[in-house]
Amino acid sequence: MLKRLGIVILVALAVAATAAPASHAARKLRVVATIPDLKSLTEAVGGDLVEVESLTRGTQNFHEAEVRPSMMLKLRRADAVIENGLDLDAWADVAIEGSNNPNIIRGGRGRIEISRGIEVLEVPTSKVDRSMGDVHPRGNPHFSLDPGLAPTITQNIVDGLVRLAPESRAVFEQNRKAFLAQLDQRMAEWTKTMAPLKGGKVVVYHPDMIYFLTRFGLVQIGMVEDRPGIPPSPQHLVNLIRAMKEEKVKVVLVEPWNDVKLANRVAEEAGAKAIVVASAVGAVKGADNYLAAIDYNIQTLAKALQ
Amino acid sequence: MRALIVVVACWVVLLPSLALAQSPEAEALRRELQELRRLQEQSQKTIDALSERLKRLEVAPAPAPSSVAPPAPPVSQGLNPPSTQMSPLSATDLLRPRQPFGLYQQRGAGQLLFDMGIAADFVGNLTQFNVEKAQGGTFQGLENRVFPREIELGLFGQIDPYASGVVRIEAGEEERGGDIAVHLAEAYLTLLALPYGTQAKLGTMRNRFGWSNNFHEHDLPWVDRPDVYRLFFGDEGLRETGAEATWIPDFLPFYVELLGGVFNGDNETAFGRRNLRDPLVTGRVRAFFELGDSQALQVGASVASGQTSGRLRSTLVGYDLKYKFRPDGWLHPLLTLGSEGIYSMRRTERDVDADEDGVVDFSQKQRRNSFGWYGWAELQPWRRWAFGARYDSTQYPDAPGWQWAIEPYVSFFPSEFLRFRLAYKHTDRQQRFDAAGNGGSARLVDELLFQATFILGAHPAHPF
User: Fold this and answer.
1) Residue A244 is part of which domain span?
2) Count of A-B CB contacts under 8 Å
3) Is the reported ipTM for this assembly greater than 0.90?
4) Does A17 fall in a domain?
5) Is A11 contained in some domain?
6) Given A67, A103, A117, which is nearest B464 (Cβ)?
7) What three-state secondary structure class fits A174?
8) Model confidence over B118-173: pLDDT tens digits?
9) Which pLDDT score is estimated for B79?
10) What is the least distance, in Å, from the CA of A89 to any CA of chain B?
């Protein structure tokens, strides 16, 4: 028996050794982003030197992504994984651990978290428990579509990529600079569009637009969800509709993966309009990349608030 | 006027000499000043660098920025994790002592280094009196009771940069009205930094045999474990102590995982040899196919081969299939289909009374093969409600005959961390069943099963 076991182990080792990749030289960096917003930003920064895949699609709720073995295969081949952090993509830990790739495990050189240096909003100041719903103990994690934070996020991506390909630092930095120049130009237009609407009041379905709204001076007065991730009770909806009428709220923002019908009903009752926002890159038609997603939200909001 | 000329002349004569006299002192002062300025600049640079570094490391709770946030400066090379953290371990690395508790010092006092959670699973059942008497229900000996089946304390996290660990301690009622028994359900470490797409797990674990065996009772999509697992491996399924390794090839266009394991063979129902000289050897291959954005299929084949306590070979091979349809943007699957089957090949010993004098003359070895399977479908039209049914059909592994069962159920999830389930199960056995040996019979069993499960704290996500 022991002899047979020994033979099995030797064969397994031999197979593993022959299957090992001979060289990683002279090829693009394989990067896997947990959400499509980060895929788009990594493509902008990495340019031709990277191949980027996303583990999720924009039409999905990132909190509840299902860990599939196909994610593990993408991660198995990856040189780096780019994660949002602040527990938005905590499920990625399970996929990464199941990928058998030591380069991207926690503490590995290819693990890039882009929340470093972000001024986090809605950090709980009291004891946190699940009676508060799906609350994030480290603060609201939905910052990736705030264009004002793109410089920090892209810097974190550049830092991470440089760790793996130091020889390409100049290219990454140049790409980032070019992207930020484009962003600055668009930012000036967006700021101009939103300036007359400053102080406008909105209701959101799920609290994933707070960074964007704060950036452009809009005020979130309530949520359709009772608490984050918890479906609303009838009493909550009654109170919300009353508050919307009192505050003269014109718009309810809803993600494509949420209950759009309910958002429409609430908006109708309150004399407002429900609009489906690009809660992520690819969430709606026309929001195919980072700049397009923000542009979509600006144009849609501006039209609805006028 | 003459006096003025004399003063001016003296001044002109004396000035160069005074300048010459003061020059070395001024030069020294100048040098000192320059040095101080240089030191000041150096200190300022150090302060700036440390401030930037602190700023980048801290995530300060603050109100929303009113303008475009400044970009964070590049991380210095010195901040990068040491390269050894990603390199495969060499033999020397493995032998070198490490200081895992160093991590504690970095995180600071009062912070745990691992996650913990509690999963509590209460089940109840109502059935006929004769079934209770024969102890022939799904929860044998616990018929017509509500009881804590599994209260599990789970602790999990990183051990060091190279490995993660899991410890699960379970408590539950095993006998009618008896004391709550506490036992170690799982305790294993996973080596994460092995080369060539491999990973190894060591310790006591639920074996990755088939799809559902790996799941704890509270995570199963049904109130009870499928009959084929309970009859072929015992009430808790296959849980063993040993080691297993996996390999994920990265050159295939779809996901494939190959697994091999060596265990004690402690499972009394299927094996029981409990000796590494004749170990229980397991193997599994699993493939996963994405069928577009909204559908996926997983197929697997497993094998477990060991010896019984009587040193007779026992081999089980199994298949598993799972299909999910999750329309794009849905927070839950609409349709889930699954099936698992196990073919058991056992060598058994039969006492033979050749001359029919009531005395056993000799023992005869024979092979007993049996097969069991289940098929399952679940429909979840709303986020909080799921409806499903499972059909079980299983031959007995150590006796002639077979049984079948049908179990429709409904699940209600008020949230991700709380679930209620109600099921009806009808079991039809081909022969009389009397586990208690008191004259009861449980050939036909009708049961109403209910389950309440809640989770406190952390609970890792389950893949597909």
Assistant:
1) 188-305
2) 189
3) no
4) no
5) no
6) A67
7) helix
8) 999 999 999 999 999 999 999 999 999 999 999 999 999 999 999 999 999 999 99
9) 32
10) 11
Contact assignment for A8 to B260 by CB distance below 8 Å: yes
A239 and A145 within one domain: no
The pTM of this model reads: 0.80
Supply the pLDDT for residue A126. 86
The three-state DSSP-derived secondary structure of B186-249 is: EEEEEECCCCCCEEEEEEEEECCCCCCCCCCHHHCCCCCCCHHHHHHHCCCCCEEEEEEEEECC
Number of residues in chain A: 306
Domain identity same for A78 and A167 = yes
* Average pLDDT for chain B: 84
Residues A172 and A193 grouped into a single domain:
no
Strand order in the sheet with A80-83: A50-54, A29-33, A80-83, A111-113
**A221 & A108 share domain:** no
- 3-state DSSP call for residue B380? strand
Nearest CA in chain A to B287: A69
Element (H, E) at A154: helix A150-164
Residues A138 and A235 in one domain: no
A120 contacts A140 by C-beta, under 8 angstroms: yes
The average confidence (pLDDT) of chain A is 92
Last residue of a domain, one of A184, A208, A243: A184
Got the DSSP string for B96-155?
Answer: S---TTHHHHHH-TT--SSEEEEEEEEEEEEE-HHHHHHT-SSSTT-TT-EEEEEEEEEE
Predicted confidence band of residue B21 (pLDDT cuts 50, 70, 90): very low
Q: Are residues A100 and A76 in the same domain?
A: yes
Residue A129 maps to a domain: no
Question: Alpha carbon of B433 to those of A59, B140, B144: distances in Å?
Answer: 53, 12, 18
Strands A273-276 and A251-254: parallel
Burial B272-287 (b: 16+ CB within 10 A, else e): bbbebebbbbbbbebe
CATH of the domain at A215: 3.40.50.1980
Q: What distance in Å separates residue B384's CA from the closest CA in chain A?
A: 10
Residue B34's contacts (CB-CB under 8 Å, 6 or more residues apart) are none
Name the percent of chain B lying above pLDDT 70. Answer: 80
Count of domains observed in chain A: 2
Statement to judge: residues A108 and A234 lie in one domain: no
A29-33/A50-54 β-pairing:
parallel
Are A159 and B196 in contact (CB < 8 Å)? no
3-state secondary structure of A240: helix
Map out the domains of chain B with their CATH numbers.
Answer: 127-147+194-457 (2.40.160)
